[in-house]
Amino acid sequence: MGNVHLIDHPLVQHKLTLMRRKDASTSTFRTLLNELSTLMAYEVTRDMPLQDVEVETPLETMTGKMIDGKKLVFVSILRAGNGILEGMLNVVPGARVGHVGLYRDPETLEAVEYYFKMPQDMQERDIVVVDPMLATGNSAIAAVNRLKKLKPKSIKFVCLLTCPEGIAALQKAHPDVAIYTAAIDRQLNEHGYILPGLGDAGDRIFGTK
Ligand code: URA
Question: Is residue 104 very low, low, confident or very high in pLDDT (cuts 50, 70, 90)?
């Protein structure tokens, strides 16, 4: 599958399996999501440009390399995206943050926008959209449609879990958006949930069910 990065590092796979367990507590689920997102941030930022920076060690001056974190925007699809956001900010604390509020119409499964707030100067920034579940793809497509109007330098999409239907939908609408995921599950059910999946990510992060 073109433009899909499956992050199969053993630590990522181990933590994801623990998160899938139906008896994992809210606090365990949240902690694992935070750790897993931090690990995924390594892969997603792998091709970030580096700048030469002069640095004085205790012994001499040298040229080191640094990223410009402020050029990066993490865009969280509310509310479940915030779980990934926190973990990513652990390793890129200087990144800017945007939020897109979308809910799924339970009948049509279409994404309906209720909130959109981004940093300024988006044309100069690389965007990483975060949402734990790429299921029907409707929210991801709606978010990317909206973000492309701001003409950012690039857009990547990071999720924990997806399925063939979600990948196909997002790739059809936005073939230029690279998808990073820790797993590609079997299928969607008739309610738009991923099987075997991990249930409702928002409910599991926030303990709302
Ligand atoms: N959103 C979720 O939280 N879980 C799914 O399985 C699909 C969409």
Answer: confident
CB 199 within 8 A of CB 33: no
Domain containing 107 — which CATH number?
A: 3.40.50.2020
Answer whether residue 64 is part of any domain: no
| Per-residue confidence (pLDDT) for residue 67, from 0 to 100 | 86
Residue located nearest, by CA, to atom 7 of ligand 1: 193
User: What range defines the domain where residue 44 resides?
Assistant: 4-48+69-206
- Count the alpha carbons within 13 Å of 123 in the hemisphere toward its beta carbon: 0
Reading the block at residue 106, the tokens are 């339970």
- State the Cα–Cα distance between residues 104 and 114, nearest whole angstrom: 11
For ligand 1, pick from 165, 194, 205, 208 the residue to mutate: most ligand atoms within 8 Å of CB. 194
- What's the predicted TM-score (pTM) here? 0.93
| Mean per-residue pLDDT, 156-170 | 98
Identify which of 193, 195, 206, 208 to mutate to test ligand 1's pocket (most ligand atoms within 8 A of the CB). 193
pLDDT at 209: 84
